[in-house]
Amino acid sequence: MYQNHNQNHNLKLKMALLSTCLVSASLNAVTGLVPEMAEAFPDVSLSTVELIATVPSLFQMVGVLGGQPVAKKLGYKGTMLLALLFCAAGGVIPVFLPLFPVIFITRCFFGTGCGLLMSSLLTLTVHFFDGRTRSTMIGLNGGISGLGSAFATFVAGMLLVFGWNVSFSVYFLGFAVMALVLLFVPKVDKSEMNTVSVQKTSKAALPVGLWGLGILMFVSVMLATVYVIKASTLITDYGYGTAREGSVSLTLLSLGSFLAGLTYGRIRARLAGQTLTLAFAICAAGCLLGGFANGLLAVWVGAFLLGYGYLIFMPFLQEQASRSYGAFGETATNLVLVFQSIGAFVTPWLGTLFGMISGDLKIQFLMTAGCFAALTVGALLRMRGSTEI
């Protein structure tokens, strides 16, 4: 693996890489526009309009899977610039062409760009940094994403007064980030990566442990996303507040993620493999608060805890893939990223399954908490006497 000690202290490089998180985190910034778009396109069914919010997650997988072949031709810096172009152009085109077919296609491009960005960012982070610096950077990736998500959603909401299509202007940020990457990220070709190790193992079957990490990421993200998509409904259905208070819960979830990103490096260094146990326990506690909530405060605190736990287990599993299966190169990290995207995409179906068991949202939150509790016990038993997965 390429390591450069001087790069660990390159503040401009760190800022440029971390700034890309602001773009990928803005994926769901326009989700709140669905009601306005449904009114603007009365001939389009609501379920089809809602695809504006979910289809980018599906195309993220396309971007992640296409990351390696694109990097082979363009290099990793070129791939990152292409990804940002997809995000920026795909994001702002609806400002000027507010037509549903155009919006749908550009959202597909945006999701593909996010997938390319996720893949190249994680690869370059592993490439440029090592040790605790790498752990800190991976944690900050998630933390900045949480902050960026909250900021982008807020700005898109403020721009709504000028028209729902104007809210897409938030994606002009992508062009500014492109300038930072162009100026401060060194050119790195695929041939400069850990070529020898990857060539030796490229034809080997992926180990069971790596698949296990991917499946664990899939289950964990799917469970966490339940809180994300149902918190606002819980607040409004039980009379704790309006949709405005529901949006506050998502902001608090993002702030919890931001704080987790800031502290991940220290937690990882202190707890090693037991970091995962802590993350799952915090997520379980957040879902329990939602399940036993009798007012707004409990839902808000639960959202904050869920966001914190989420951005502890996610970077941990990403880093674990690169640490334990680095000989497989980007294949290891990309596999985990693909399972991450799938987990977020299929969450509505998990919600449907929970709804078949009980129509009570509080019961569904408690079921989610029970699943996280089981993961907590599993992580505790798996890590006893070990420092790695």
Give the SSE map.
Blueprint: H1 11-25, H2 34-40, H3 46-49, H4 51-96, H5 100-128, H6 131-159, H7 173-184, H8 195-201, H9 208-237, H10 243-271, H11 275-291, H12 296-324, H13 330-345, H14 347-357, H15 361-383
Summarize the structure.
The chain is an all-alpha fold and 389 residues long. The protein has 2 domains: 1-193, Growth Hormone, Chain: A (Up-down Bundle); 199-389, MFS general substrate transporter like domains (Growth Hormone, Chain: A, Up-down Bundle). The protein has helices at 11-25, 34-40, 46-49, 51-96, 100-128, 131-159, 173-184, 195-201, 208-237, 243-271, 275-291, 296-324, 330-345, 347-357, 361-383.
Properties at a glance:
single chain; 389 residues; globular; disordered N terminus; Growth Hormone, Chain: A; 2 domains; mainly alpha; 15 helices
